[in-house]
Specification:
single chain; two-stranded antiparallel ribbon; extended; Endonuclease-reverse transcriptase
C-alpha cells in the first residue's frame, strides 16, 4: 500500500479538535480487487427496478443537502422501498443438523 500513497501533508485547515488532518492521494494500479458482496438487508436486489431507482434518486436530490449519516441511511432505505421488493422475512432456512424437538420445546 505504501508505494501507492503520494503527496501526503498535514493540513492547516481547522479541524475543530486537537488534531490536524493528514491529506494524501492513493494511486490505483488499475487492478480490481475482489471482495465478498455484502448480504442483502431486507430487499431482493435481483428485483431492482432501475426506473424506480432513478426516480427515487432524483427525488432525493431535489430535497436539499443531506446533513448526517442517519439522514442518508433513512433516505437510502426509502429509495430501496420504492425500487425493490422486500425479502420474505418469514422464509426460514433448514434447521441446524443438531436441532431436535426437545430443544425447540425448551426454548418456548
Amino acid at each position: 500500500m505504501r508505494p501507492r500513497i503520494s503527496d501526503w501533508h498535514v493540513s492547516d485547515e481547522e479541524s475543530l479538535s486537537d488534531h490536524n488532518y493528514i491529506l494524501f492521494n492513493i494511486c490505483s494500479d488499475g487492478r480490481r480487487t475482489t471482495r465478498d458482496k455484502p448480504k442483502a438487508k431486507g430487499w431482493q436486489s435481483k428485483m431492482l427496478d432501475s426506473r424506480k431507482l432513478r426516480d427515487a434518486l432524483h427525488e432525493m436530490n431535489n430535497t436539499g443537502i443531506i446533513t448526517s449519516a442517519k439522514t442518508l441511511s433513512n433516505k437510502l432505505d426509502e429509495i430501496c422501498e420504492k425500487s425493490m421488493t422486500k425479502t420474505n422475512s418469514s422464509k426460514k432456512g433448514k434447521p441446524a443438523y443438531w436441532w431436535i424437538e426437545e430443544i425447540a420445546q425448551l426454548r418456548k
